[in-house]
């Protein structure tokens, strides 16, 4: 259904995610946000089609595999050019989600030049520290694209400020991170008092560091009768389980990878969402937990403060401080009144400020200003 009085299919939008296509088989926050953006654009009355499934991701700066990706990208440009010409016209805009130095958009900028399309990015990121080797070339491309884009939609103030500092001539607009809260508010929560929960994939890097920090913090809290439900799976499941192996039997429940409805049920039976969030861009799982009526205990790092309000919907601790994190968990587990107040505030925050419907309205406002209103 269209919103704000817009007509159905108000704009035709070609959507592209160079890091991970919306239909990629491996779940992640990146894939989920791509799907949510498509849904929000459609709810705003726009006709959205995934233009390409090409993944431009390169793990290292040595260029291995880059030639093949460049060749495939060139073929995609020609394929889409022929397709649009045969259809009698191009879309109104190219919408690129999450281009960054490891996954640049090698398709959209050329198509925008050929067809005069409005070029839009969402969650683009730029890091001066990556100006070396192949990544320097990708960074140069990214900076040029961001500077010329009709608008760059930023999901956190941190990202917007970083982009604006690096590319001051760009046009930027803020969009609050959002979810579809309906699966998580469908039933009233029935939390067990000392039940903690975490939902995260088990992979190297920041996820593994968060698991390490969580295990270390919980080891300091053996005097409390907490339990922990873990929903998630991945290549490092054995290593993650080993981190908690010294805990008493019955403390940890390993649920593996679960679908949305199952995760909503697990959240609804829990009292506190415990996830340190090392390096999180923002963390859609935090919004899902809060929609389910759970306060959060996390670190005040990266984009987490954009989705968890310290002292209102959760507690945020200094990055890397395991003692502070353990103390925050203990406070949340033992202060029933605070926890219950935060649970109510958390659900209200997501419903009122981070919903799919609100995001659809905001996206429509941005596109009407920067795409429809551009010279």
* CATH homologous superfamily descriptor of the largest domain: Glycogen Phosphorylase B
> What is the molecular shape?
globular
How far the N terminus sits from the C terminus, by CA atoms, comes to: 29 Å
Binned, the helix content reads 40-55%
- CATH class label of the largest domain: Alpha Beta
Contiguous uncertain segments of 5+ residues = 1-6
Q: Label the structural class.
A: alpha/beta
Tally of DSSP β-strands: 12
Mean pLDDT: 92
Within the CATH hierarchy, at the fold level, what is the topology of the largest domain?
A: Rossmann fold
* Main sheet attributes: strand count, strand direction, barrel closure: 6 strands, parallel
Structure, explained:
- This is Glycosyltransferase involved in cell wall biosynthesis.
- InterPro entries: Glycosyltransferase_grp1.
- One of its GO terms (molecular function) is glycosyltransferase activity.
- The structure is a single chain.
- By secondary structure, the chain is an alpha/beta fold.
- It has two domains: 12-178 and 355-372, Rossmann fold; 182-353, Rossmann fold.
- Helix content is 43%, strand content 14%.
- The radius of gyration is 22 Å and the shape is globular.
- It starts with 11 loop residues before the first strand and ends with a helix.
- Residues 1-6 have low confidence and may be disordered.
């Amino acid at each position: 259904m269209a919103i704000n009085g817009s007509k159905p299919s108000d704009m035709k939008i070609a959507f592209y995610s160079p890091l991970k296509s919306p239909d990629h088989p491996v779940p992640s926050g990146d894939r989920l946000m791509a799907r949510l953006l498509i849904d929000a654009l459609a709810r705003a009355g726009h006709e959205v089609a995934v233009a390409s499934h090409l993944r431009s991701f390169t793990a290292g700066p040595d260029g291995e595999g880059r030639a093949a990706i460049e060749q495939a990208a060139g073929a995609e440009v020609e394929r889409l050019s022929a397709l649009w010409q045969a259809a009698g016209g191009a879309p109104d805009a190219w919408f690129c989600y999450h281009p960054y130095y490891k996954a640049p958009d090698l398709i959209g900028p050329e198509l925008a030049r050929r067809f005069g399309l409005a070029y839009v990015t969402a969650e683009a990121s730029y890091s001066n520290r990556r100006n070396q080797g192949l990544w320097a070339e990708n960074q140069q491309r990214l900076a040029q694209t961001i500077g010329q884009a009709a608008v760059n939609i930023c999901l956190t103030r941190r990202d917007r400020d970083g982009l604006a500092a690096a590319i001051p001539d760009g046009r930027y607009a803020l969009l609050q991170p959002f979810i579809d809260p309906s699966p998580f508010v469908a039933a009233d929560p029935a939390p067990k008092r000392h039940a903690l929960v975490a939902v995260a994939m088990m992979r190297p890097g920041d996820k593994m560091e968060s698991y390490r920090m969580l295990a270390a913090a919980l080891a300091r809290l053996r005097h409390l009768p907490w339990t922990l439900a873990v929903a998630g799976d991945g290549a490092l499941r054995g290593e993650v389980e080993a981190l908690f192996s010294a805990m008493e039997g019955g403390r940890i429940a390993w649920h593996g990878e679960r679908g949305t409805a199952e995760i909503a049920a697990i959240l609804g039976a829990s009292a506190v969402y415990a996830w340190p969030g090392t390096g999180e861009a923002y963390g859609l799982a935090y919004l899902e937990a809060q929609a389910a009526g759970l306060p959060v205990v996390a670190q005040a790092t990266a984009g987490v403060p954009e989705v968890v309000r310290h002292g209102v919907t959760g507690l945020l601790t200094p990055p890397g401080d395991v003692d502070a994190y353990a103390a925050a968990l203990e406070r949340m587990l033992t202060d029933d009144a605070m926890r219950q107040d935060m649970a109510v505030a958390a659900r209200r925050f997501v419903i009122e400020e981070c919903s799919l419907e609100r995001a659809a309205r905001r996206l429509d406002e941005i596109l009407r200003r920067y795409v429809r209103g551009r010279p």
